[in-house]
Fold each of these.
Amino acid sequence: MTKHALTLAIAALAGGLSLAAAAQQDHQPQGLYSADDILDADVYLSDAPEERVGEVEDILLDEAMQVTALVVESGEVLGLGGRELVVEAGQFSLTTQAESDGEVEHRVMLEATAEELEDYPVYDNDWWQQARERTREAWMDTQEGAQSAWETTQEGAEQAWETTRENARRAWETARDALSGDANQ
């Protein structure tokens, strides 16, 4: 086989493998997602995956920049009258699917029934203010807990140092006295 033919055979094999890998990754996680791609993603219930219940309106982040909730606009008819619901992390999953045109479709799947969806909190100013206050209090409690843990650790280390120092002094004195006693005999 000539060098040129071998190169073409390897290229064809590699191309076939990459196409096979791409075909297998239709539903695979991407690893990194753009908020722009997820905003306006269609939202479905896990137990009714073909029944669209709304779309992602907003993504809520905490102090650590972790996604804590999605705001889902649901119940909209002709662009009027939709409710914005808060869906906390752990109550939804994100699926991706490669379309035939090469585009990627993102779907948010809610782990809820239609009845449970009715009980989700409405995203409004009252909810926002309460959520901010709860989050701020949790953050302050965490900071206070960390400070208290640091102080407790520091006090424990100081006590351990003092105990070690006292025990070392006693061991020194005992060894000195034992050596003095042996010298006197």
Amino acid sequence: MLRYLPFLLVLALWIYAFIDCLNTPEEEVRGLPKVVWVIVILLFGEVLVGPVAWLVAGRNRAPRGPSGGGATRWVAPDDNPEFLKSLDKDREKDRDRKDGGEDG
């Protein structure tokens, strides 16, 4: 069983690189066109040159954020200033209702 492990690891890396290349948007692919990367991965997958080249040189690994041009990073509600402000506004509305209801 252990003698099949290297083959399975190469196969897993090959499949991962192929699927990752297919799922990566065209504007995030570096170096070569996406179609060429797919061909490189498929042709040189057995010797690991294609998948390793894709993982090292083909993918754009810059973190996405407001300055990266991609989708904004998710922020937990307790760290999100806009969410905290909305909570303060809700509390003020509740206080106004309670104050107004007791006077009337």
Amino acid sequence: MRIRTATERDIDFIKSRDHHLKEHLIAPKIRGNEIFLFQDEHDESIGWMRFSYFWDNTPFMNMIWFDEPYRNQGLGKQAVDFWENRMKEQGFERVMTSTQADEEAQHFYRKLGYKDAGCLLLDDQAMEIIFTKKLI
């Protein structure tokens, strides 16, 4: 798998797949280098990751996604390792992410060394579990 920073020419791909991100926020996140694309051996996009900063100072992975045929092959771990290394290179000592309690991703993050750090309850959704990880 190849991982690269998204560019303006990736806007249509992101817009068509990431339904959690408002369209007008895609370009600013790309300019801020906050979206990565995952590509297969034919340079076809197979997924993406985007992040932001919690409290404006702690990297927070908002979304990681792989198309169905590419799941459960270790690519998610590879992508998270890539992101964590990038954040560490930039001097960050801790990263964060979250997932809903009714999603399997919570087990994935714990397996990668993320620790439960709290939760958020919204009126119409399952509990959101917040995770943190110290970068060593």
Amino acid sequence: MTLVQMQPRSANAHLVHRTVGDAMEAAGPQVCDDMTVEVALAVMASARAGHLLVCDEDGLCTGLVTQARLAAVRDSAAYTDQVRLRDLLGDRGPVTSPVTTMAEAEHAMRYRRLDALPVVDEQGSALGVLALAR
């Protein structure tokens, strides 16, 4: 027989194993990466959303853009009305899995200075968004 030392369970023990899937919000508006910045800002305003999930031609999530980022791009000296969302994201923006722990996701978001992060499944389809609490 082996003795096992038991420790009292903390009231916050459930938070240690909490995953992104437990905390994510609904995906919200999704747009194609060939959309221009101006059109994306209009979609965002009409949806009353602070961010848009961006998908490629196959419907896979390539990242997330915020109203603040789009406004900064639009107000920059290098802006033209031909700038597309894919030009802002490059190959693929940061995303996370629903099985990632909240501690890992929060650390990554703070390190990268992100307010929101797309949550994707194994195939890359958007499931939701993880947003840091203010």
